[in-house]
Amino acid sequence: MKIYIYGLYEEGKEDKIRYIGKTNKLDLQKRLREHICESFRNNKKTHKKHWIKSVLNNNKKINIKCLEETDELNWENKEKYWISKTFNLTNSTKGGECGRETIYTLSYDDCKKYIKEEFNIKSISEWHKSKLPIFIPKEPRNVYLNRGWISWGDFLGTNKVQDNEKAKNYFSYDKAKEYVKNLEIKTLIEWKEKTKKELIPYFIPNRPERFYKNRGWISWGDFLGTNRIANQNKKDFFISYDNCCKFVKENNIKSIIQWRKLVSTFPYNIPKDPHNQYKNKGWISWGEFFGTGYIQDNLLAKNYLSYVESKNWIKNNLPNIKSEKMWKLSVKNNEIPINIPNHPEIFFSKKNRGWIGWKDFLNKFILD
Asked: From CA 356, how far away is CA 350, in angstroms rounded?
């Protein structure tokens, strides 16, 4: 088996290696990610972890490079050689010890037996929470990788098959979709209930959205065959503002009330809240959207005359209006200009805009 002696260094400082280790992984980037994760996950403080965290916290990067390729018989001497020839390292040993201060002499089978008899641990999370004796490795997979290791299920005696082993039997995305259609699952909640009851076959992953990511996954609606699109994804499917206006015209929708009654029947690429979806993308008002020309009160209000100005306009232009009833009739006959509210008793009562009463507003005191 090939063994790689590698060095870690801060990006841009390739000549200043700060840590030297060994691995049998051809993918050195994967080993680098493990170092970074260990630095933030494990509470035990070391010079290496402190160095990695300080570099990353300063928005800089850690890089890795292969120093030498060797084998199982010679890697210990090679690692020691590189450590002895490199200065200012964060290594805690002189090398040749699998990166650990402790050499574990217990065999894989003996370690399994001891764990089963003394601890009876059933899961990886339970393992990491347990207080283990010094002669038991905290990371048994790393220690026994080439000394009998099979899987966590085998090591803990649960015989549970890990996801990476199950994945070898998983259907392709398209084949899984075809099979799932026969299960008649319509929602994500139904899917989770099925997985909880172990009703999903072994050849389909319980978390398809994870496994099939970059392997064909589109959405739960696509996977379950319902064609429903999650709200956070719909923004990528909505038609343009102009096309949505055409849709409104073709379906003869003229009001917000009518829109809300029909919205549940619209295709998935028509937004339920066009005023939000098309904000800064063409939206002006509901009246413009429906083609009615109707302007909403909140938009009209920006151009309303003040209370006193409205009173004076009525006095000079509609002096014959003497009561609230006559006012409503004038509103109905479209005699009131758009810069005066149709319901002055409501608009001018808010925020202390000057409303006193109908007699004052219609100048009735003067007329009497």
From this structure: 12
